[in-house]
Amino acid sequence: MSVIEINHITKDYGHHKGVFDVSFVVEEGEVLGFLGPNGSGKTTTIRQLMGFMKPDQGDVKILGMNCFDDAKQVQGKLGYLPGEIAFMEDMTGQEFIRFIAKMKNMKDISYAEELMQFLELDARGKMKRMSKGMKQKIGIVIAFMQDAPILILDEPTSGLDPLMQNKFVELIQQAKKDGKTVLMSSHIFEEVENTCDRVVMIKEGHVVATETMENLRKNRLKHYEIHFYDENDAIAFMEKYHQAKRDGAIIHLMLKGHTNQLLQDLSQYDIDDFNARPQSLEELFLHYYGGEEK
Fold it and tell me: Which CATH architecture has domain 221-278?
Protein backbone atom coordinates (compact mmCIF):
# COMPACT_ATOMS: atom_id res chain seq x y z
CA MET A 1 0.00 0.00 0.00
CA SER A 2 1.26 3.48 -0.87
CA VAL A 3 1.33 5.57 2.30
CA ILE A 4 2.78 8.71 0.69
CA GLU A 5 1.71 9.65 -2.85
CA ILE A 6 3.16 12.56 -4.80
CA ASN A 7 1.30 12.98 -8.09
CA HIS A 8 2.73 15.28 -10.78
CA ILE A 9 3.22 18.24 -8.47
CA THR A 10 4.52 21.57 -9.71
CA LYS A 11 5.36 24.55 -7.51
CA ASP A 12 6.94 27.22 -9.68
CA TYR A 13 8.69 30.16 -7.99
CA GLY A 14 10.00 31.48 -11.31
CA HIS A 15 13.58 31.59 -12.61
CA HIS A 16 13.58 27.76 -12.75
CA LYS A 17 13.16 27.54 -8.96
CA GLY A 18 10.67 25.09 -7.44
CA VAL A 19 9.58 21.57 -8.38
CA PHE A 20 8.21 20.47 -11.72
CA ASP A 21 6.00 17.46 -12.46
CA VAL A 22 7.40 15.50 -9.52
CA SER A 23 5.89 12.07 -8.88
CA PHE A 24 6.85 9.20 -6.58
CA VAL A 25 5.35 7.06 -3.83
CA VAL A 26 6.54 5.66 -0.51
CA GLU A 27 5.13 2.26 0.33
CA GLU A 28 4.04 1.10 3.78
CA GLY A 29 7.06 0.05 5.85
CA GLU A 30 9.52 1.48 3.33
CA VAL A 31 12.43 3.82 4.04
CA LEU A 32 12.93 6.09 1.04
CA GLY A 33 15.93 8.38 0.64
CA PHE A 34 15.21 11.69 -1.09
CA LEU A 35 18.50 12.94 -2.48
CA GLY A 36 19.57 16.15 -4.13
CA PRO A 37 21.88 19.13 -3.68
CA ASN A 38 20.81 22.34 -1.95
CA GLY A 39 18.13 24.10 -3.98
CA SER A 40 17.07 20.97 -5.87
CA GLY A 41 13.51 20.94 -4.50
CA LYS A 42 13.66 18.51 -1.56
CA THR A 43 12.36 20.92 1.08
CA THR A 44 9.73 22.38 -1.27
CA THR A 45 8.37 18.87 -1.84
CA ILE A 46 8.41 18.07 1.89
CA ARG A 47 6.65 21.33 2.80
CA GLN A 48 3.84 20.39 0.43
CA LEU A 49 3.58 16.98 2.12
CA MET A 50 3.23 18.77 5.45
CA GLY A 51 0.40 20.93 4.09
CA PHE A 52 2.35 24.15 4.54
CA MET A 53 1.82 25.06 0.90
CA LYS A 54 -0.43 23.92 -1.95
CA PRO A 55 0.96 22.70 -5.28
CA ASP A 56 0.25 24.83 -8.34
CA GLN A 57 -0.56 21.56 -10.11
CA GLY A 58 -0.96 17.95 -8.99
CA ASP A 59 -1.61 16.72 -5.48
CA VAL A 60 0.08 15.08 -2.50
CA LYS A 61 -1.62 12.51 -0.28
CA ILE A 62 -0.73 10.68 2.92
CA LEU A 63 -2.90 7.69 3.87
CA GLY A 64 -5.28 8.77 1.11
CA MET A 65 -5.81 12.21 2.66
CA ASN A 66 -5.02 15.41 0.78
CA CYS A 67 -2.04 16.95 2.53
CA PHE A 68 -3.26 20.54 2.11
CA ASP A 69 -7.01 20.15 2.62
CA ASP A 70 -6.64 17.63 5.46
CA ALA A 71 -3.42 19.01 6.93
CA LYS A 72 -4.45 18.70 10.60
CA GLN A 73 -5.44 15.03 10.28
CA VAL A 74 -2.32 14.25 8.23
CA GLN A 75 0.04 15.94 10.69
CA GLY A 76 -1.49 13.92 13.53
CA LYS A 77 -0.27 10.73 11.84
CA LEU A 78 3.38 11.61 11.43
CA GLY A 79 6.58 12.74 13.05
CA TYR A 80 8.29 15.63 11.27
CA LEU A 81 11.78 17.07 11.41
CA PRO A 82 12.18 20.26 9.35
CA GLY A 83 15.45 21.27 7.74
CA GLU A 84 15.40 24.52 9.72
CA ILE A 85 13.81 24.21 13.16
CA ALA A 86 12.19 27.28 14.75
CA PHE A 87 13.13 27.09 18.45
CA MET A 88 11.90 29.23 21.34
CA GLU A 89 15.33 30.36 22.43
CA ASP A 90 14.36 31.44 25.96
CA MET A 91 13.04 27.98 26.83
CA THR A 92 15.18 25.12 28.06
CA GLY A 93 15.32 22.08 25.82
CA GLN A 94 13.12 20.14 28.25
CA GLU A 95 10.55 22.94 28.35
CA PHE A 96 10.46 23.07 24.56
CA ILE A 97 9.97 19.30 24.28
CA ARG A 98 7.13 19.42 26.82
CA PHE A 99 5.60 22.40 24.99
CA ILE A 100 5.55 20.47 21.69
CA ALA A 101 4.22 17.35 23.46
CA LYS A 102 1.35 19.42 24.86
CA MET A 103 0.59 20.80 21.39
CA LYS A 104 0.43 17.19 20.15
CA ASN A 105 -1.87 16.25 23.07
CA MET A 106 0.70 13.79 24.37
CA LYS A 107 0.10 12.80 27.99
CA ASP A 108 3.10 10.48 28.31
CA ILE A 109 6.59 11.71 27.36
CA SER A 110 8.49 8.70 28.68
CA TYR A 111 9.57 7.79 25.14
CA ALA A 112 10.98 11.31 24.69
CA GLU A 113 13.03 10.75 27.85
CA GLU A 114 14.29 7.43 26.47
CA LEU A 115 15.30 9.17 23.26
CA MET A 116 17.17 11.90 25.15
CA GLN A 117 19.09 9.25 27.06
CA PHE A 118 19.86 7.31 23.86
CA LEU A 119 21.10 10.47 22.12
CA GLU A 120 23.09 11.54 25.22
CA LEU A 121 21.15 14.79 25.30
CA ASP A 122 21.12 16.99 28.39
CA ALA A 123 18.19 19.26 27.56
CA ARG A 124 18.18 21.26 30.79
CA GLY A 125 20.02 24.27 29.36
CA LYS A 126 18.55 27.26 27.55
CA MET A 127 18.06 26.74 23.83
CA LYS A 128 19.90 29.95 22.94
CA ARG A 129 23.10 28.55 24.44
CA MET A 130 22.87 25.19 22.68
CA SER A 131 25.06 24.10 19.78
CA LYS A 132 23.64 23.19 16.37
CA GLY A 133 24.17 19.52 17.21
CA MET A 134 22.24 19.72 20.49
CA LYS A 135 19.36 21.53 18.81
CA GLN A 136 19.32 18.86 16.10
CA LYS A 137 19.04 16.17 18.76
CA ILE A 138 16.03 17.99 20.21
CA GLY A 139 14.48 18.06 16.75
CA ILE A 140 15.01 14.31 16.41
CA VAL A 141 13.43 13.69 19.83
CA ILE A 142 10.38 15.74 18.84
CA ALA A 143 10.04 13.92 15.50
CA PHE A 144 10.24 10.45 17.07
CA MET A 145 8.62 10.93 20.50
CA GLN A 146 5.03 10.56 19.24
CA ASP A 147 5.90 7.06 17.98
CA ALA A 148 3.96 7.92 14.81
CA PRO A 149 3.61 5.38 11.98
CA ILE A 150 5.07 7.84 9.43
CA LEU A 151 8.27 9.89 9.65
CA ILE A 152 9.21 12.78 7.35
CA LEU A 153 12.75 13.92 8.03
CA ASP A 154 14.49 16.79 6.23
CA GLU A 155 18.30 16.50 6.55
CA PRO A 156 17.95 14.79 9.94
CA THR A 157 21.64 14.48 10.85
CA SER A 158 22.68 18.02 9.94
CA GLY A 159 25.09 19.21 12.64
CA LEU A 160 25.52 15.81 14.30
CA ASP A 161 28.95 14.30 14.88
CA PRO A 162 29.73 10.85 13.39
CA LEU A 163 28.86 9.00 16.63
CA MET A 164 25.42 10.61 16.75
CA GLN A 165 24.94 9.99 13.01
CA ASN A 166 25.45 6.29 13.77
CA LYS A 167 22.93 6.46 16.60
CA PHE A 168 20.45 8.08 14.23
CA VAL A 169 20.97 5.20 11.78
CA GLU A 170 20.08 2.84 14.65
CA LEU A 171 16.85 4.79 15.22
CA ILE A 172 15.88 4.46 11.55
CA GLN A 173 16.75 0.77 11.49
CA GLN A 174 14.52 0.23 14.53
CA ALA A 175 11.71 2.26 12.92
CA LYS A 176 12.04 0.01 9.88
CA LYS A 177 11.76 -3.11 12.06
CA ASP A 178 8.65 -1.59 13.64
CA GLY A 179 7.07 -1.24 10.18
CA LYS A 180 7.13 2.56 10.06
CA THR A 181 7.13 4.43 6.76
CA VAL A 182 10.00 6.91 6.41
CA LEU A 183 10.77 9.64 3.87
CA MET A 184 14.21 11.05 4.57
CA SER A 185 16.04 13.73 2.64
CA SER A 186 19.78 13.47 3.10
CA HIS A 187 23.18 14.30 1.71
CA ILE A 188 25.04 11.80 3.93
CA PHE A 189 25.39 8.80 1.70
CA GLU A 190 26.51 6.30 4.34
CA GLU A 191 23.26 6.73 6.28
CA VAL A 192 21.24 6.30 3.06
CA GLU A 193 23.14 3.11 2.21
CA ASN A 194 22.59 1.77 5.73
CA THR A 195 18.88 2.57 6.02
CA CYS A 196 17.04 3.05 2.74
CA ASP A 197 15.17 0.58 0.53
CA ARG A 198 14.96 2.99 -2.42
CA VAL A 199 16.23 6.41 -3.38
CA VAL A 200 14.67 9.20 -5.42
CA MET A 201 17.15 11.69 -6.86
CA ILE A 202 16.01 15.21 -7.68
CA LYS A 203 17.88 17.85 -9.66
CA GLU A 204 16.74 21.41 -10.37
CA GLY A 205 13.18 20.50 -9.37
CA HIS A 206 12.95 17.39 -11.57
CA VAL A 207 13.18 13.76 -10.53
CA VAL A 208 16.17 12.33 -12.44
CA ALA A 209 16.27 8.78 -11.05
CA THR A 210 14.36 6.36 -8.86
CA GLU A 211 16.32 3.26 -7.90
CA THR A 212 16.23 0.47 -5.36
CA MET A 213 19.30 0.26 -3.17
CA GLU A 214 19.68 -3.33 -4.37
CA ASN A 215 19.94 -2.18 -8.00
CA LEU A 216 22.33 0.62 -7.11
CA ARG A 217 24.61 -1.81 -5.31
CA LYS A 218 24.38 -4.34 -8.14
CA ASN A 219 25.22 -1.84 -10.86
CA ARG A 220 27.85 0.23 -9.17
CA LEU A 221 31.43 0.05 -10.33
CA LYS A 222 34.53 -0.88 -8.36
CA HIS A 223 37.57 1.34 -7.90
CA TYR A 224 40.97 -0.30 -8.31
CA GLU A 225 44.26 1.27 -7.36
CA ILE A 226 47.17 -0.76 -8.73
CA HIS A 227 50.80 0.00 -7.87
CA PHE A 228 53.24 -1.41 -10.43
CA TYR A 229 56.92 -1.87 -9.62
CA ASP A 230 57.82 -0.61 -13.10
CA GLU A 231 56.21 2.43 -14.71
CA ASN A 232 56.68 0.85 -18.15
CA ASP A 233 54.44 -2.02 -17.02
CA ALA A 234 51.77 0.49 -16.03
CA ILE A 235 51.98 2.07 -19.49
CA ALA A 236 51.75 -1.37 -21.15
CA PHE A 237 48.74 -2.29 -18.97
CA MET A 238 46.86 0.77 -20.23
CA GLU A 239 47.02 -0.52 -23.81
CA LYS A 240 44.16 -2.88 -22.87
CA TYR A 241 42.48 -0.70 -20.23
CA HIS A 242 42.21 2.62 -22.07
CA GLN A 243 39.76 4.09 -19.53
CA ALA A 244 42.34 3.83 -16.73
CA LYS A 245 44.16 6.84 -15.36
CA ARG A 246 47.87 6.72 -14.60
CA ASP A 247 49.98 8.60 -12.08
CA GLY A 248 53.51 7.37 -12.63
CA ALA A 249 53.50 3.66 -11.78
CA ILE A 250 50.06 3.85 -10.15
CA ILE A 251 46.93 2.98 -12.13
CA HIS A 252 43.41 4.07 -11.14
CA LEU A 253 40.68 2.04 -12.78
CA MET A 254 36.90 1.68 -12.47
CA LEU A 255 35.23 -1.55 -13.63
CA LYS A 256 31.87 -3.26 -13.30
CA GLY A 257 31.56 -6.97 -12.61
CA HIS A 258 33.96 -9.68 -11.50
CA THR A 259 37.67 -9.15 -11.03
CA ASN A 260 38.79 -12.48 -12.55
CA GLN A 261 39.83 -11.06 -15.92
CA LEU A 262 41.59 -8.10 -14.33
CA LEU A 263 43.58 -10.36 -12.00
CA GLN A 264 44.49 -12.61 -14.92
CA ASP A 265 45.75 -9.61 -16.92
CA LEU A 266 47.75 -8.35 -13.94
CA SER A 267 49.40 -11.71 -13.34
CA GLN A 268 52.01 -11.01 -16.04
CA TYR A 269 53.31 -7.93 -14.17
CA ASP A 270 55.14 -7.33 -10.91
CA ILE A 271 52.59 -5.63 -8.62
CA ASP A 272 53.66 -3.74 -5.51
CA ASP A 273 50.20 -3.06 -4.09
CA PHE A 274 46.56 -3.57 -5.03
CA ASN A 275 43.49 -1.90 -3.48
CA ALA A 276 39.82 -2.28 -4.40
CA ARG A 277 36.66 -0.63 -3.08
CA PRO A 278 33.07 -0.34 -4.32
CA GLN A 279 31.82 2.91 -5.85
CA SER A 280 30.09 4.92 -3.14
CA LEU A 281 26.53 6.14 -3.40
CA GLU A 282 27.98 9.66 -3.54
CA GLU A 283 29.90 8.76 -6.70
CA LEU A 284 26.78 7.21 -8.20
CA PHE A 285 24.97 10.41 -7.32
CA LEU A 286 27.61 12.47 -9.16
CA HIS A 287 27.13 10.19 -12.15
CA TYR A 288 23.42 11.01 -12.29
CA TYR A 289 24.20 14.70 -11.89
CA GLY A 290 26.69 14.82 -14.72
CA GLY A 291 29.75 14.78 -12.47
CA GLU A 292 33.09 13.34 -13.43
CA GLU A 293 32.41 9.82 -12.14
CA LYS A 294 31.05 8.09 -15.21
Answer: 2-Layer Sandwich (3.30)
